[in-house]
Specification:
single chain; alpha+beta; Nuclear Transport Factor 2, Chain: A; four-stranded antiparallel sheet; 4 strands
Length: 106
Amino acid sequence: MISLLMSTALLLAAGSGACKQAAPQLQSQAKITCTTAKQKALASVGGKSLRVVSAELEKEGGRLVYSFDVARRGHSGVEEIQIDARNGEIVSAKHETAKDEANERY
């Protein structure tokens, strides 16, 4: 248990991945914090050398979610993990290539 907590602390320190400032109406609807959601997202990816590249609170598909892009050193692309901001459940987890990410931005 202690090693799990220490691993989580190290992962969080490795990449701040602070959530982008969301609109106040979205923040007021969230029942869990960005930090709690980030811990769940990192745990779902598992392993070492993880870094949160981006983190935001957003409405997607009618759900309020925290969306995290998690990079792993030595691997291409990112894992996009979405955590329900109301109940903390994992909504989706998928691998995105650099091309996928570029398409998402435009």
